[in-house]
Amino acid sequence: MEIRNIATNRRARHEYFIEETIEAGVVLTGTEVKSLRRGKGNLNDSYAQIKEGEVFLYNCHISPYDFGNRYNHDPLRPRKLLLHRAEIRRLMTKVKEKGFTLVPLAMYFDRNNRVKIELALARGKKLYDKRENLAKRDAEREMARVLKGKGDLR
Fold first, then answer.
1. What mean pLDDT comes out for the span 109-124?
2. 124 by DSSP, 3-state: which?
3. Buried b / exposed e along 42-68 (16+ C-beta atoms within 10 A)
4. How do residues 6-18 score in pLDDT, each as one tens digit?
5. Burial class (CB in 10 A: 0-12, 13-18, 19+), 33
6. Which of 49, 118, 126, 152 is deepest in the core (most CB within 10 A)?
7. Exposed/middle/buried for 133, CB within 10 Å: 0-12, 13-18, 19+?
8. Distance of CA 25 to CAs 55, 71, 86, 112, Å?
9. Bridge partners, residue 49, by sequence
10. Taking the domains of the chain in order of start, what are their residue ranges?
11. How many angstroms separate the CA atoms of 18 and 11, rounded?
12. pLDDT tens across 31-63, in order?
């Protein structure tokens, strides 16, 4: 059984410099898991924070399960992330440094069918960094096109 992707935060790699990534488990209710199996998760605008020695995921939208009736969950509730205490302490010292934040990159089912979050320790990009990345990507695309012989030499 392979890893099955549920949701990715594509904007995160554009907005932040990714320093390192960590895999974390998520505490979910039954209707949340059923909804995620249908692919109804969204990581846009979500972030993680450390509060009282525990890591929580905020603004992660998991749509209510269609057949969940009164047992349905709140779509935007804070969800606890499962990490080892030593990892949490290490992340806490990094986050206290200037400019670091915890950003979720992807949500997926692992080999044991458990929902996991790929969490990144990231530093925010300035506007000129984003422009620089776009210019570099455009230049690489142009070079590849010319090397393939499809581009015109100006």
1. 89
2. strand
3. bbeebbbebeeeebbbeebebbebeee
4. 888 888 888 888 8
5. middle
6. 118
7. middle
8. 11, 22, 15, 12
9. 56
10. 4-125
11. 12
12. 888 888 888 888 888 989 999 989 999 998 888
Contact call for residues 45 and 141 (beta carbons, < 8 A): no
**Who's near 20: CB < 8 A, 6+ residues apart?**
120, 121
What's the pLDDT at 154? 54
> In the structure encoding, which two tokens stand for residue 26, read together?
């998520």
State both tokens at 145. 């096109």
Structure tokens at 102: 């915890």
pTM, entire model:
0.76
| Superfamily covering domain 4-125 | Small protein B (2.40.280.10)
Q: Give the contacts of 74 (CB within 8 A, at least 6 positions apart).
A: none
CA–CA distance, 130 with 136 (Å, rounded to integer):
10
Instruction: Reduce the DSSP state of residue 142 to 3 states and report it.
Output: helix
